[in-house]
Specification:
226 residues; mainly alpha; elongated
């Protein structure tokens, strides 16, 4: 029901109906159903619902399920990354096993920290869980390391990828656009490989990244020629 309301752009109505039944639902076990609890969490998070209410709902709901916990982490990742990271640690203490999407969300939360140490720790756990070949996680790692300015780590992840997609290329282009001038040639190589190696036609944002890369290197004439 909640997912249906959400598809119809009626998330607030769904939440109103849900909260009308929530007090009784906790007692009867209605909101202990994983699918229902997770759908509610997603609907409320997607419309920008109050995080404190989500936390209350999370604590009141007895769902020992990694999908539900990851939904809570998704809501926290951008708005309260430190708490999202601690929630992930609590997930481990509850003996829940993270899936690759859980790791992707935690990596997103890691970008709220000052250094790359948390991302490195999660990276090691991704390898231990044998998710290192998941393209989504590789992309998340590239983006996280680039956010810290650790372009060498981003490039290492990129070079180790067996299959790269548009997100991979975008992430590396943006990483080089925000880096120092000595990496200009590498950024240009990534741009030029988009169509040549992957058959991807560069869009406006890709050209913007290349112009930024050239501009930072003082190669204004080349940038103007684009």
């Amino acid at each position: 029901m909640i997912a249906g309301f959400q598809l119809a752009k009626l998330g607030m109505q769904a939440i109103g109906v849900f909260f009308q039944n929530a007090s009784g639902g906790v007692k009867t076990g209605f909101i202990s159903e994983v699918e229902v609890a997770t759908a509610f969490m997603k609907a409320y998070s997607d419309i920008g619902g109050d995080v404190s209410e989500l936390k209350h709902f999370f604590l009141e709901t007895s769902c020992q399920d990694v999908v539900f916990w990851t939904s809570m982490n998704t809501a926290l990742a951008e708005r309260d990354p430190i708490e999202a990271f601690f929630l992930y640690r609590q997930l481990l203490r509850e003996d829940l096993t993270p899936d690759f999407y859980t790791f992707a969300i935690v990596l997103k939360a890691c970008m709220g920290f000052v250094t790359e140490q948390h991302a490195l720790a999660i990276h090691s756990l991704v390898i231990k869980a044998r998710f290192e070949d998941e393209t989504m996680l590789k992309n998340a790692l590239i983006h996280a390391y680039a956010r810290y300015g650790s372009i060498a780590l981003s490039r290492q992840v990129f070079e180790e990828m067996a299959g790269r997609d548009l997100v991979s290329l975008n992430s590396m282009l943006k990483a080089y656009a925000c880096s120092h001038s000595e990496l200009v040639e590498e950024g240009i190589r990534i741009f030029d490989s988009m169509f040549k190696n992957y058959g991807i036609i560069p869009q406006l944002d890709h050209y913007a990244c290349k112009i930024d890369i050239l501009g930072r290197a003082g190669r204004i004439i080349e940038a103007e020629e684009l």
